[in-house]
Amino acid sequence: MLPARQFSALRLADVLTSSLEAVCARQNPLGLPTVRKAVVILADGLGASSIRARSGHARFLSSRLNKSSIIDGVFPATTAAGIATLTTGVEPGQHGLVGYQVLDGARDRVVNQLTGWDGDMRPATWQRERTVFERAADESVPSFAIGPKRFVASGFTQAVLRGARYVAADTVADRFAAARSILSENPTALIYLYVAELDVAAHAHGWQSDRWLAQLETLDSEVSRFASTLRSDEGLLLTADHGVIDVPSTRHVLFDTEPALISGVRHVAGDPRCVQLYLEPQQTAGSASSAADTLADAWRESQGDRAWIYTRAEAVAAGLYGRVADEVLPRIGDVVIAARKSIAYYDSRPANQKARGMIGQHGSLTDEEVRVPLIRAGAFSR
């Protein structure tokens, strides 16, 4: 059974775009008032359900979290797709980052959208859309991206943050200090501030761990302190790219041990909770469609009680990737498996099984993974 996922009217794609519109004194999808300066914080991996579940450790954030301050991220619920959607204002089917790992069909290889950038997967062309920062330059609004030093020159940074001046700051506190300095030194500005620490802790220890809670408390304290410094013409939004669920190793499904689930599969990509399977090349479009249907049926027979299974055509028709450009279509798996139970799918054939050490997982369509906060402060407070 395929889910009839109804994405909400408020979307991650609107957050940074609306902030720029507010700086430019224009109406915007979020209804933000006019400001001179706007700050958007992206807390990687901070789902709305996690804030609710740990509200005592996030008093500032939870006090501003209500029904109207929860929005939809993207599918797949993964960082590459989510951040690209935030910084371009369009859905994955348009910007082209449709998963953590996807097929580069021209070179018959799987590429990692966060770390796999090279001369054949150029950031300036693989990510197809102009960024909000590039549009800000058109309006003479200076834009800044604040994040860890290790990401300064990464391919992913070049793909999704182009047009912004990157400001390196390795601790969460230093990033907020940098944001305050930029606000004080510029008459107008658009600032993107990235917090990776929650997601890192979740993958290694789980979002229910003490390590994750400590990072949540740090973020909450820093946001509260920073919000208290905001002036009347400075607005703040905090959101996330996805949420996280914990999956113990006892809930790993080694799908390659069931031959029917890998029959005709040439490449395995995606995330453990959103596997994308690419078939061997077919002679005709008709046979390719038939092969995808056959593989999807095999998955439904085996896993239909704990995963949503789509062919590419079904996923596109359901609008999971938004509008999909012709150039982007082949990057989506011939068959897509989205976990709906607390499980993660792994291929046990590759020698490197390091990924199976992750506890915190994301990628699928559950509310815990897709629903993210939209916390407002400063001039953007309601």
Automatic annotation (TrEMBL):
Protein name: Alkaline phosphatase family protein
SUPFAM superfamilies given in the database record: Alkaline phosphatase-like (SSF53649)
GO molecular function: hydrolase activity
